[in-house]
Amino acid sequence: MVIELQVALEEWPPGPKYLFDSVGERAFFESFYAHPLIPIESITESVREKRMDFLKKCITHNGSPEFTHNLRFHIYDLANDWMLNADEIKSKEVITLFQKGLDSEARDILKVMENMELLPYELFDVAVARIRKWFDTNEKEDLMMRSLRMSFMNDRMMKCIRESKMEVVLVSPDDINQLMRQVRICLNRVQSNDQAVKINHLAVDFEKLIMMIQKSCF
């Protein structure tokens, strides 16, 4: 499955051996007769991280022409075989799909996630990037849009927009607003802390801004 993913998605660490420790290398890449049977359940943390990074890179191809359902099954089968946190891979998949504007597919995955941890904050980054993309695309030719931006954004919102670097596709204000609402829904599923409260307040402020954008567009 590893080699099939590497070939199909062109994700090439330095060969399949890269994803195994010395014991795994002997077990899988040396002649069966050259060594005794060795238990391979226990691996080092560095190998575990390499495996997780590899599967995360593979899952970012979701939404691309070369990505198939079969390859997706391989990714999660490997995560299970390697005893990795599947929700961590799903988080990466969700972010990738929202970046590509595949919101429906992303929400389908959100429904089956158990542990979200940092996901709400990453979703917020995507939502802010969508707003930045919208302004970058529209305000150059629309003085009303520029005025709207200056009138309804506070310093904290401005800072978020300035610091946003994530690449996203252009989507409608309605899709932006739905994602911002999704951020607040996800925040309700994680432990409350100062950061969660801050992001929730910002999300509410951005929702108000997006509503004004929607009104100006119709």
Automatic annotation (TrEMBL):
A Pfam family recorded for this sequence: RAB3GAP2_C
Record-annotated Rab3GAP regulatory subunit C-terminal domain positions: 18-187
Domain of life: Eukaryota
Protein name listed in UniProt: RAB3GAP2_C domain-containing protein
